[in-house]
Amino acid sequence: MADTTGTSFRLVHQSGRRPINEGPAGRRLSREDLILISGYGVWPLFDNSIAKEAGAQCRQLDIDCSRAADRAFWQAMPVNVAKRWGGRMPKIARILSCHPAGEGAWCLDVISALIEGHTEGRTAMVAEKRTEAERRGEEADIPDGSL
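User: That's the sequence. What structure does it adopt?
Assistant: Structure tokens below.
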């Protein structure tokens, strides 16, 4: 880290007020460090409505291991979180996994949990849409599976 004389963070904007120029932050993090912080710090966000809606629109998931930060993200993901995340992606049609050479079972538990969660989420979505269609007196035109 370069210069650490300033504050660790600075206020950029506060609603209704002009920002105060405090100069640059004293500690700068590399892009890789920021990714690691995000990789470990976003799990609580998966309970909010934005994450749920984003997952509901997801049709493809790419699990990549080409960068160390990406490998760390997927290797650190708890299985129960992967299953919950998969449940929030009922429309997913493709999961592409790029694993390290010679490690075919890399993150297999996470991938399996994603698929299990997707299956449960898809089943619940189909049942809900069919019930809603029956209530309206229409025929539900939705396939059982997507993967």
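The chain has one domain: 31-136.
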